[in-house]
Design brief:
mainly alpha; three-stranded antiparallel beta sheet; two-stranded antiparallel ribbon; 8 helices; 5 strands; globular
C-alpha cells in the first residue's frame, strides 16, 4: 500500500547507481537534485517510525530492516512531488496541506469501517505505509500537490469520468516522471537503489548468492525514468 496511487486509493507510486554514475556525496543517504538527504536525518526519521511501530505490531507487516528503505522512499517521493509542483508553477498553502490530510484520514476511516476494522487511526495508516508520524505534513503536501496538479490540467476540477481519471493519471505520471528525471536522483548503495516504477528504494541485486536462473525469474527494478 505504498506510492502515489496507494496513498489516494487507501486514502491513501537519471542516475540509477551504475558504474557510470558519480558517487553519492559522503554522509548522504541520497541526493535528489540539489537536496542532500543526510544519513543522520534518515536515521532520525527511522527512529521515529520504529518508536511508533510497537502498538501496531500485530497489525502492520513491516520489519526494522525495511524501515530505512521505506522512509527514504517517501523522502525521495516528497522531493519529486515538490519538483513537479515547481515545474508546473503550482503552490499549495498550509490550509491545502491540512485539508489533504483530513481527506486521507476520512477516506481511510470510511474504508476501515466498511471492512469492519474498528481500530483505525491516522497514525496506524502512516506506520503501515512506512511513514513516521511526524512526517504527516509531508504526506499532506504530497497529496495536496497531486490534487492541485490534476485540477490544473483538468479545467480546475477533479475528473469523475473513467476517461477523465485515466487522462489525469497519465498526465500526473508523466509530470512525476519528468520531475524525477530532472532531479538525477542518486541513492547511497548502502540503502539500495531506486525503482522508478514506484519511486521506491529497493535492495540492490545480490548477484553473488542468487541461485542459477533466479535472475530471470525476478522482476527487475526500473532503474531509469520511463519518460
Amino acid at each position: 500500500m505504498k506510492g502515489a496511487v496507494a496513498v489516494a486509493a487507501a486514502a491513501f507510486g537519471a542516475c540509477a547507481l551504475v558504474s557510470a554514475c558519480a558517487p553519492v556525496k559522503m554522509g548522504a543517504a541520497a541526493v535528489v537534485g540539489s537536496q542532500r538527504i543526510s544519513i543522520d536525518a534518515l536515521d532520525s526519521q527511522v527512529a521515529n517510525l520504529a518508536a511508533a511501530y510497537p502498538p501496531y505490531a500485530s497489525q502492520v507487516q513491516i520489519t526494522t530492516a525495511q524501515m530505512p528503505g521505506d522512509v527514504l522512499s517517501w523522502l525521495i517521493r516528497f522531493a519529486i512531488r515538490d519538483q513537479m509542483a515547481q515545474d508546473a508553477g503550482i503552490t499549495v498553502s498550509q490550509a491545502d496541506v491540512e485539508q489533504a490530510i483530513a481527506q486521507i484520514d476520512a477516506q481511510a476511516r470510511a474504508q476501515a469501517q466498511q471492512s469492519g476494522q474498528g481500530n483505525y487511526s491516522l497514525r496506524l495508516l502512516l506506520v503501515a505505509n512506512g511513514i513516521p508520524p511526524d512526517m504527516v505534513s509531508g504526506l499532506g503536501r504530497y497529496q495536496a500537490i497531486e490534487l492541485a496538479y490534476i485540477k490544473k490540467y483538468n479545467n480546475g476540477t477533479i475528473p469523475t469520468s473513467t476517461a477523465g481519471v485515466n487522462a489525469a493519471t497519465a498526465q500526473l505520471n508523466r509530470g512525476q516522471c519528468e520531475a524525477a528525471k530532472t532531479l538525477n536522483i542518486q541513492v547511497n548503495p548502502q540503502f539500495g537503489r531506486l525503482d522508478y516504477s514506484q519511486y521506491s528504494v529497493v535492495p540492490a541485486p545480490d548477484t553473488l548468492s542468487r541461485a542459477p536462473g533466479a535472475a530471470a525469474k525476478a522482476s527487475p527494478a526500473a532503474t531509469t525514468p520511463a519518460c
